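The authors assume throughout that readers already know how a fold can be written as discrete tokens. Each protein is reduced to its one-letter sequence and a matching series of backbone shape codes. I therefore recommend that a typical entry be quoted early in the introduction. For illustration, here is how one protein appears when written out as sequence plus structure tokens:
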Amino acid sequence: MKNIFSWIDQNLADLLLVIFVVVVLVIVGFFSRQSIQSTVDLSWPNCNRLSNASYALAIVGSNGGLDFKPNPCLGNEIRMSNKFVLYANSGNPGFPLISKFKRRGPLICPKYNNLICYSFNYGYQAAEYSIRQANLAAAAGSTFWWIDVESINSWTNSIDANRADIEGMVFAFQANRFLTPKVGIYTAYNQWLSVVGHWNNSLELWLGTGDTSLSQAKQSCRQPSFIGKSIALSQYTVGNLDFNFSCSHWQVKNYFTD
């Protein structure tokens, strides 16, 4: 009988060891990011962290956190992604910086120091810059552009001017001569409110939540959208990467570019 119990104890210990090893391998596999079957968003902060990663679906930042600053690893992040769409950071620095865009279109601004008109042109040219960066990285075929609106970037004190800036970006993305991509907004409620006020523009919403788990992100999907349409994606952070839960229909194949 003693031998039987010893045999059971030994095999139980072996079984527990096997279970432990399997669990460790699963955890290591997840955090190594070798192949992630969910939507991850990537940009310049991730440039030194993704040497061997591969992502099934990705939303990739076309610029380096500011309107006219490149993402130095855009091409690498595109190549890491089996399917991708793009996002662009936005901002409106106001006078005097936006003055140089008064004659660069698409609007012909009617008078000197017209903040609204200059802001629209600035947003348009910022989006055109992101499109050029995408072209250089062989990512011009993105079928969706997200506009990242965060209060940490430069904005004027004029809600109308800030709205004009975003409208200029939307116009530029939708006027792309190669295709007419869909456009959505990435933001959080308080940041959106501080930049553009209560503005319902009926675009898709990618919600920045500050959540740190998938379950929290799912709960955040139940909030009403503050820009018009229902929430498409809810962001959450695990380690050094941001992931996104699809709140509805958004993760369909046609939204992503091979």
Observations:
- Residues 2-32 form the longest helix (31 residues).
- Residues 35-255 form a domain with the TIM Barrel fold (CATH 3.20.20.80).
- The chain has two domains: 1-32, 35-255.
- The helical segments are 2-32, 74-79, 115-136, 159-174, 189-196, 214-220.
